[in-house]
Amino acid sequence: MIRPDLSLPIPADITAAHFIGIGGSGMSGLAGMFLDRGIRVSGSDRADSPAMRALAARGADVHIGHDAAHLPDDADTVVHTGAIWPENPEFLLAKERGLHVIHRSQALHWLVGGRRLVSVAGAHGKTTSTGMIVTALRGLGTRPTFVNGGVIADLGVSSATGDDDVFVIEADESDGTFLLYDTSIALITNVDPDHLDHWQTREAFYDGFVRFADGAREAVVISADDPGAARVAAALSHRRVVTFGEAGDADVRVSDIVTDGPVSFSLTAGGETAHGRLSVPGAHNAINAAGAVAVLVALGYELERALRAVEGFGGTARRFELHGVTRGVSVYDDYAHHPTEVAAALSAARTVVGGGRIIALHQPHTYSRTQEMFREFADVLETHADHTVVLDVYGAREDPVPGVTGELVSGAFTDPGHVHFVADWQEAADYAAGVAREGDFIVTLGCGNVNLIIPQVLESLARAEG
């Protein structure tokens, strides 16, 4: 992978931009926003995708596969993700030509261009919280520009150009790029040490969040419940810190959470109390809503009005997303790829499954995370799911590590009768379908490509029915 060099200069003017990895949800969104600015856009990716076809329909010059010939002669800027290899031929040619070669976060920084920026950071809940803020702002009659890590269900897009001064982004702490942005309001959902392949130590990880928060020009909105967030909050020197959560001393306090179905709750701030109900399940979403409302209050909206607007949020893609029901078995997908996220996703599923069982289909993400956290994954899966099917590791940007496979997770279960490790996807789909019975949920878990197994699961269920 290529680590972002945030010291590289960002061009003042861009007329023709080439995106290496243009098909990803984040990169395709950025490319679309460049098109909105009237900038010529080209790009490439390993495989075709609906996002690439949509960009092509708008006039972008897109290519499948990476080849130096795909880099246009008139390109003045090349945008890349950290996931490409240093040997990428388009990357090498751009360097040889002396073009501006910038990380996607630098391209986003260029797009923000001095607007009032709301940056959402945290180990978990970023995409949902960003979606809640964007949905609410639109419901309040504004059109913010936004870049989210997932598709907002009601809008059908992960990013869009608006005409309001507010710009909302999901800020990435995984590689430190959230420190690049000139943030006005920082929302920190939680601080659960992760991505130590970049940060190296937990102390460096916490310090990164302190610098991110203290750099916010207007306000810091931070969890009052999360121990890591509390550690960060204690180190802040910022003049305006707003806390949210169930803690009794939270500035925006959540109480009376009811999770039997779509979650309902109360929020109290400044002596005022408002009651809310979301269309998405899980106590964690009541907490996410509190953070979103706290941001809206910091932007100048009243508590009651802000909460009513957040209630309009209908979810994001790959966050407890229903893909089909076959033989009475509901098949969901969730992006959860950290033990805390897995516990939250399965707890939310438990509130709505009724008398059915939960069958987790878990794809470990990256060798480094699996090696460090396989015991924690096993514990939360065994605690919150009735049965677990573990796939092999999705390596993403990492090279394989000898001995680190999905079997590390399954082998750490205390009761081997509750887990089954299957490297072959068709066998895994057949096994999950064979275990499931009417009323059960099958939930795929992971931020790799595990969602692509869902059609196989649904077909296996249909065959079992016949």
UniProtKB/TrEMBL annotation:
Q: Which gene encodes it?
A: murC
Function, in words = Cell wall formation.
UniProt keyword annotation of Cell division present: yes
Subcellular localization is given as: Cytoplasm
What sequence ranges are listed for the domain Mur ligase N-terminal catalytic?
18-113
Q: Which terms does the record give in the GO molecular function aspect?
A: UDP-N-acetylmuramate-L-alanine ligase activity
For this chain, the family text in UniProt reads: Belongs to the MurCDEF family.
**Pathway per the UniProt entry:** Cell wall biogenesis; peptidoglycan biosynthesis
Which enzyme class? ligase
Q: What EC number(s) does the entry state?
A: 6.3.2.8
Record-given protein name: UDP-N-acetylmuramate--L-alanine ligase
Residues at which ATP binds: G122, A123, H124, G125, K126, T127, T128
Q: Which reaction does it catalyse?
A: UDP-N-acetyl-alpha-D-muramate + L-alanine + ATP = UDP-N-acetyl-alpha-D-muramoyl-L-alanine + ADP + phosphate + H(+)
Q: What PANTHER family does the annotation carry?
A: UDP-N-ACETYLMURAMATE--L-ALANINE LIGASE, UDP-N-ACETYLMURAMATE--L-ALANINE LIGASE-RELATED
Any idea which UniProt keywords this protein has? ATP-binding, Cell cycle, Cell division, Cell shape, Cell wall biogenesis/degradation, Cytoplasm, Ligase, Nucleotide-binding, Peptidoglycan synthesis
